[in-house]
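Predict structure. Chain length: 475.
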Amino acid sequence: MAMVSKMQADQQDLAALLNRVVQESLQFFAGLEERPVAAQAKTEAVESLPSDGRGGLQALERFQQLYAKKLSASAGPRYLGFVTGGATPASIAGDWLVSVYDQNLSGISDSIAGYVELETIAMLRELFLLPDDFSGAFVSGATMANFVGLAQARQWAARKQGVDVANDGLYQLPPLKIASGAPHSSIYKSLSMLGIGRKSMHLIPCQPNREAIDIAALRAFLEEHRNEPCVVVANAGTVNTVDYDDLAAIARLKSDYAFWLHVDAAFGGFAACSPRFSHLVNGLEHADSITIDAHKWLNVPYDSAMQFTRHKSLQVDVFQNNAAYLGSAIAQPEFAHLTPENSRRFRALPAWFSLQAYGRAGYKEIVESNAEVARLLGEKIAGSDSFELLAPVRLNVVCFSLKRKTRAEESLTMNDITRFLGQLSRDGRVFMTPTNYQGSPAIRAAFSNWRTVGQDVDVIWQALCDSFAEYSREG
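Prediction complete.
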């Protein structure tokens, strides 16, 4: 049977194929509790390209046979590595329809899909308590959102020096000064991609035993570089301890100094959803550009994030694509003229579904519930003989380490942390990732999944204790 005929046959029997996909999906969700949270991947023999193809049903069966059972339960309640949300039921429905509708979101002229993205951005502005002068667009993740924000900052700084860097390049400019207290690694990656360079980052001292920038030290830096346009990268939720820079205090410095304020609020921006935590993002409305991730606390499928800006014209300067078929970058810039990608999938739809389905109250519940389970785990660690808490549990991340009971004279190494986490992963009940906090090897437990409840903390704690006992026996 010719390949086209097999495609036609699949189309004619599409209901059967999609029903089988639904069955596989329901089986996956039903088995999340039994599936290892971090699957130990083993190298498989590479499948050769079929000469004629198997058809859709046979391809699905082959995938189930080879790979489906070996995927991890990262969608489940005890995947605490990185900051990974679990897709809400409504967002899954929206994500499936993204593939069904297969819209090209490079513009807004040929489909209502573009207006759905604009509407979704407007709802997210409300969720994050941002004023209407912020525009936004979906990108693939926080790294790309940081890239978009810093690209605008680069354009702004160059203009201050009489250069249109988007057209003329960086080479006639002195190095751009970037200042931050505890920047995420994606900031360095963005600086590299933008040609600004990782070494342009000036690390400003943080407050004692904090990851929040020292405002007096930042003021001194800005005073030293008063005659140069600078970029300040502020944090609204650091990855190790969910610490927040004083955004309002940083914004007040703008009255004395010229700088671009980019706020990396990848998951910490969601503090705005809760009256208990919204004070943490006071001043966010004064940012020039903002990064917020969607596949973290918005709990939509990978890959999805939002970038917000108060300087849309600068964004167009950087990302406009001078092709007649893409339309006018000035009259109608959405979306190919605002983001690095010309080809864009309908990323807004899962977010639209989830926001419509659960509203502000739903996201308030997720944030406060995740903060509560993080607090519970932090309490267990603080009272433990095996582990020690390295920082206060401020929101949804617990930063801790191992106690050395029998070899106190030896300092803990990253190899110790890696060995322990390897044992924890093999246990299969929970997954966490290593980090380095204030020069010490550490462990992060990041809670951002809507499924996680108090009972999961009991399972997590037992897994930690069992793994520590095994780790100790191994020496």
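Summary: Residues 3-73 form one domain.
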